[in-house]
Amino acid sequence: MVNAGTYWLWQQFAVSDALPDEALPTVVEALCSTSLTSYGVDGRGEERRTKALADALPTLLSRVTRPGLRRRLLQQADDKQPAELADQGVVVAADLPTILRTHRPTPGLVIGLARHPD
After folding, report:
1. Ramachandran class of 96: left when φ > 0, alpha when ψ lies in -120 to 50, beta otherwise
2. Which ranges of 16-95 does DSSP label H, i.e. alpha helix?
3. Of the candidates 25, 40, 115, 7, which has an alpha carbon nearest to the alpha carbon of residue 70?
């Protein structure tokens, strides 16, 4: 669990060019972890986490190559993001099984994947 007030910081780390590859697992873990307050899970913190993850997702997926980390990120994506990321070329056909476990296929996803040769 992560302090809800630090999601913006983790998001900044995620999009930083100075972030070493060795730190990617820690950043992914933080952005995929539920928020914690002194009295339990914080609903506003989850909103912050979702926004921070959505903002960092394109950058993280373009850098993360380990299947387990990619799977974790894609499972946390909202329903529209896989199609948007496929259109950008960040999500590739190899990610499709993971996406289909948690998201319904959309025309945008199919079109986005079809535009790329892989």
Report:
1. alpha
2. 24-32, 43-63, 67-76, 81-88
3. 25
Report how far residue 92's alpha carbon sits from residue 94's, in angstroms, rounded to the nearest whole number. Answer: 5
Query: Rounded to whole angstroms, what are the CA distances from 45 to 6, 41, 52, 103, 116?
Result: 9, 8, 10, 23, 36
Which of 106, 105, 112 is CA-nearest to residue 85?
Answer: 112
How much is the pTM? 0.86
Q: 10 Å Cβ neighbour count for 83?
A: 22
Q: What is the pLDDT of residues 72-97, one digit of tens each?
A: 999 999 989 999 999 999 999 999 99
Torsion region of 78: left, alpha or beta (phi above 0 gives left; psi -120 to 50 gives alpha): beta
Token readout for 62 is 């373009």
